[in-house]
Design brief:
The chain is an alpha+beta fold. The protein has 28 helices and 41 strands. It holds the Pfam family ATPgrasp_N.
């Protein structure tokens, strides 16, 4: 039986109380923290049993979890000082991402008073009181021993050494948050406010629908509807709306460039904290920022038209190439391009103007391109003093790496924390940035700045076999030791949510939380929470990655049924549609390192693409406690897997006809194709896999069949790109497609979950059709796979084709390709699918075309009940019977109570005795009636059970009928797609008479199917 060991230590404002099941033999418990006490769990009288019974449900549940797992330990944080909670859950952002911790739990509510226990924990009673006073706990997979305690003590001390418990009561605040109508996508911005005891009132456009989720679902307390047009009167509308609000509002926050100046003007008018509007006017305007740093305008200029640019190029004032052009009022990296020559500059400025047409300032600024490492510099200022600074490595973008930068962008690709630049260069950057921020007029706030360092001792280099570069020392001699810093821009706000997540994980700094505290002027907590983890030399390494995949409007529109196409820009995709969930089944060794991930939709034009095209943009943050090298390996691996994990349509030839498979079961999840190729260490490896969702008979929940194409069996690999002439089947999935053609020397391997029984059977007809198609695929040696064009470069495709033809490709080896680890660790097995069942006699013998259908509505079958009506009638009966049953029981209970009260008293007269005799007879009669009623109740119970069985049967029949209808609809869609291909064949060159004849046949067949004839 497990037993408990207790030991304690000090960690800043907490005692750490360790509790773990004892799995070794009895004996003295000696740890690095001193002696502990074993408490037996052998019987109900033991002290451990008392411990679990005496604690509240949350703590008792954690103790029970500790017992159940048989290993690992719980660490309870017991306060050393009394006071008030500055945050309701500091473990969530300071401890939860630690590799030594599997989960955390808070026992606090916002602003709660905290009382430190005074008793020692050397006695059981002291332990009871310590647990009662504990304010949070963590669960660790480590076993209780000296080494584990030392590791946890170091990490907990490093992470929780900040003044979280306030000696004074913490005031409640109310914050007004400005945003656009995409409230669900923006709620992460104020998610921390509730834990801080700050109420959030959101001001946005569009009425708050009563049919929508209530405000608390979005972590806000109230909603103000207002016109959010950023015109000259915007700030007055903000101030008037806040004055009209029934409760006082303590702060105003709109951390987006278009809102900053109006929000500052409104805040100044209302008398709440704000930096000066003029400071925001400079930071949100790239021309004014550049002018502040270079008053003589020696290195930059602006243009408002292509004609003005041409005049500048023809003038005596030369343009020192290379240069970068960007919209003066631009956001993010939209419309930012590099140019090495005058023709490239003309093209770049023209593209920048496309973006600036949507902005309040039409101008484009042209400035020098700096060839040096780019960084983000995040700073926290308070009254002119830098409370915290950090440097983030920003990796080269496509515009940096391309020899011809035409059309290439500066969209952020990857970022890493901590920086690899030497300390002196990091110091030079922070000094320059802090100075520039103060010069703009800011002295307090959170700032996200971008800069490059010239003449650095480091440069981005591709090592052998690497697909991304990393910072390495420069081998050549530098001409100077000076390292001037070139500041690109100052964002008077926090980094984006994903970039901020890197700082939370690596440093414990939550910039969004600090932004909330700054907005309401809570300076004591603003300072307290600006303290990073101790021991910066010991850190988790984080790596931010952006993966961008082209998608068609038809594929993303169903995810946003209530949004017109012109409102899809930057919409957040619900996490249930994230590919991370699918990849976790096949690549758990990678996805376990994904700490945060976020998907949103962007129009391709914002990133230099074509009008009408769309981009599926995934931003994710990896973390690892091991090293930057490990983070680098993850950063190389994941984009290849993610971007290649793409929707696909399969085609093959079978019995002289072209077959295709595009719709699996369920049909809202696409068929996916993943491809991974690598050529390192003189080896050429590749992995090709098709994932087809299907429902198995003995596992009705969604699963999948995996088709693996071994590189050893590829006799020939060909490809076609930029296929725009697509049938309707493919147009639903791709805007433009690439076709990968495989010719094989052996059949494809079919893998299914190891828990599925053989022979493999489907749970419903649609899955049966999918399995029939997979049977055919497993017996062919040639197939075509259609995927979104541009996912694979021509170089990659040519390389695969050349090596496959020469027989140089080998399969990958390693745990990620081990089938025993597939399906979330339950494993996979190779199988042979059963052939399709032969068609029925009627189908096999029907060779004549169908007769003209009768256009009469088909009568419902009389031998089966009509689902919804029958069920409602049965339920009505059930409700009446239940009501009768409960009424009878109530009457019997009342009668029995009366009978108990009607016993005769011994000192009553003879008359009373006679009356008592009469009452006894009545009692006997009532008891007999009671017995009859009980029998009736039992009969009613039996009838109720029979009716419930009948209802269940009807519901099953209804589900089956619905499933049959769904399959019929899918079959009709498949037939339409097949017939469209036949019709296309006719239209492309056959005579008119034949075309009419076949069209009539098509329509007759469709009408027959639709009408059930």
């Amino acid at each position: 039986m497990p037993r408990f060991g207790f030991c304690q230590s000090h960690s800043s404002q907490f005692h750490n109380l360790y509790i773990a099941p004892k799995v070794r033999s009895s004996g003295p418990l000696e740890t690095s923290l001193g002696p502990g006490v074993w408490i037996s769990d052998n019987d109900s009288q033991s002290e451990a049993s008392q411990l679990r019974k005496n604690q509240d449900s949350i703590i008792a549940a954690l103790l029970q979890q500790c017992i159940a797992q048989g290993e690992g330990l719980c660490v309870f944080q017991v306060p050393r000082v009394s006071g008030f909670a500055g945050h309701a859950n500091p473990w969530a952002f300071r401890v939860a991402d630690c590799a030594l911790v599997s989960s955390t739990k808070t026992f606090l509510s916002p602003l709660q008073e905290i009382t430190a226990p005074s008793d020692s924990t050397n006695t059981l009673d002291g332990i009871f009181k310590a647990l009662d006073a504990s304010i949070g706990a963590i669960i660790s997979p480590l076993e209780l021993c000296d080494e584990a305690i030392d590791k946890l003590e170091f990490e907990l001390t490093r992470r929780l050494s900040f003044p979280f418990i306030s000696s004074e009561p913490v005031r409640k605040w109310r914050l007004c948050f400005l945003t656009w109508s995409r409230i669900a996508a923006k709620r992460a911005a104020w998610a921390n406010a509730k834990a801080l005891g700050i109420e959030v009132v959101v001001m946005s456009s569009g009425a708050w629908s009563e049919d929508d989720k209530p405000p608390h679902e979005y972590m806000m307390d109230c909603y103000i509807e207002m016109d959010m047009t950023t015109d000259d009167g915007f700030w007055r509308r903000i101030a008037d709306a806040i004055r009209a609000y029934p409760d006082p509002i303590d702060g105003l926050w709109g951390p987006w460039d278009p809102f900053m100046v109006p929000a500052a003007k409104a805040a100044r008018d209302l008398g709440v904290y704000t930096p000066e509007p003029e400071a925001f006017s400079i930071s949100t305007n790239k021309y004014r920022t550049r002018q502040m740093l270079d008053p003589d305008e020696k290195d930059f200029f602006t243009v408002q038209s292509l004609k003005e640019l041409e005049s500048r190029l023809q003038s005596t004032r030369s343009v020192n190439f290379p240069v970068v052009c960007k919209p003066v009022a631009g956001l993010s990296s939209w419309g930012v391009y590099r140019a090495n020559t005058a023709p490239q500059l003309r093209d770049a400025v023209e593209k920048s103007f496309i973006i600036s047409q949507e902005l309040p300032d039409l101008r484009v600024v042209v400035e020098p391109y700096i060839d040096g490492p780019e960084v983000d510099c995040n700073i926290v200022l308070f009254r002119g003093q830098a409370l915290y600074t950090e440097i983030v490595d920003d990796f080269p973008c496509s515009a940096d790496l391309a020899e011809d930068p035409t059309g290439k962008l500066f969209t952020e690709s990857q970022a890493a924390v901590p920086s690899r630049l030497p300390e002196n260069e990091q110091r030079a950057i922070t000094d320059e940035v802090v100075s520039a921020v103060r010069k703009m007029g800011f002295d307090t706030g959170v700032f996200h700045c971008e800069a490059r360092i010239c003449n650095s001792s480091m440069e981005y280099t591709f090592t052998k076999g690497a697909t991304i570069p990393d910072l390495e020392p420069i081998a050549r001699h530098r001409s100077s030791k000076d390292t001037p810093v070139y500041l690109h821009e100052v964002n008077a706000r926090m980094p984006g949510p994903m970039s901020s997540a890197s700082s939370i994980i690596a440093r414990g700094m939550d910039f969004w939380m600090l932004g909330v505290l700054c907005a309401v002027g809570d300076w004591s907590r603003y300072e307290a929470f600006s303290v990073p983890f101790l021991h910066p030399e010991v850190t988790d390494h984080t790596w931010l990655i952006n993966c961008i995949v082209p998608v068609s409007l038809e594929r993303i529109k169903p995810l946003f049924p209530d949004h017109p196409a012109d409102q899809l820009a930057h919409q957040a995709v619900d996490s249930s549609h994230s590919l991370i969930l699918e990849l976790a089944k096949t690549h758990p060794h990678l996805t376990k390192h994904v700490a945060r991930h976020h998907v949103y939709i962007e129009p391709a034009t914002r990133l230099g693409g074509k009008e009408g095209d769309w981009l599926w943009t995934m931003c994710m943050v990896f973390h690892t406690p091991h090293s930057r090298e490990h983070a680098f390996q993850l950063a190389q691996k994941f984009p290849e897997v993610y971007e290649a994990f793409t929707p696909a349509v399969l085609e093959w030839e079978w019995e002289g006809a072209t077959r295709s498979l595009a719709t699996p079961d369920p049909d809202n999840v696409p068929i996916r194709f993943t491809i991974h190729a690598d050529s390192t260490h003189d080896k050429h490896r590749a992995h090709f896999e098709i994932i087809v969702p299907v429902k198995f008979k003995d596992k009705p929940s969604s699963a999948a069949v995996f088709l693996r194409i071994s590189p050893l069996f590829i006799a020939c690999f060909r490809f076609s790109t930029n296929i725009d002439a697509l049938d309707s089947l493919k147009k639903q999935r791709f805007s433009s497609a690439a076709c990968l053609e495989f010719e094989l020397s052996n059949s494809i391997a079919v893998l299914v979950p190891s828990y599925v029984k053989e022979p493999i059977a489907a749970s419903r007809p649609r899955s049966g059709k999918v399995l029939d198609s997979l049977y055919e695929l497993s017996h062919v040696t040639a197939l075509r796979i259609y995927i979104q064009d541009s996912l694979l470069s021509l170089d990659q495709l040519n390389s695969i084709s050349d090596r496959a033809t020469k027989g140089l490709l080998e399969p990958f080896s390693g745990p990620e390709y081990d089938i025993s680890r597939m399906f979330s660790g339950s494993g996979a097995k190779a199988t042979k699918l059963s052939p399709p069942k032969p068609p029925s006699y009627e189908k096999a013998t029907s060779s004549q075309p169908p007769s003209a259908p009768s256009y009469q509505r088909k009568r419902p079958r009389q031998d089966s009940p009509q689902g919804p009506d029958s069920i409602s009638q049965v339920w009505d009966k059930l409700q009446k019977l239940e009501s009768l049953f409960h009424n009878k029981v109530g009457e019997l209970t009342a009668e029995n109570a009366k009978l108990r009260d009607q016993k005769p008293k011994p000192d009553e007269s003879q008359a009373e005795t006679a009356r008592s005799t009469d009452q006894s007879l009545v009692i006997i009669e009532l008891r007999a009636e009671n017995a009859q009623l009980r029998e009736e109740v039992e009969r009613l119970k039996k009838r109720q059970e029979d009716l419930e069985v009948e209802v269940a049967s009807l519901q099953t029949a209804q589900r089956s009928e619905k499933d049959t209808e769904e399959v019929a609809i899918i079959e009709i869609r498949d037939d339409i797609e097949s017939l469209e291909r036949r019709l296309s064949w006719v239209e492309n060159g056959k005579d008119e008479y034949l075309m009419k004849q076949i069209k009539q046949e098509i329509f007759d067949e469709l009408a027959t199917r639709v009408l059930g004839g």
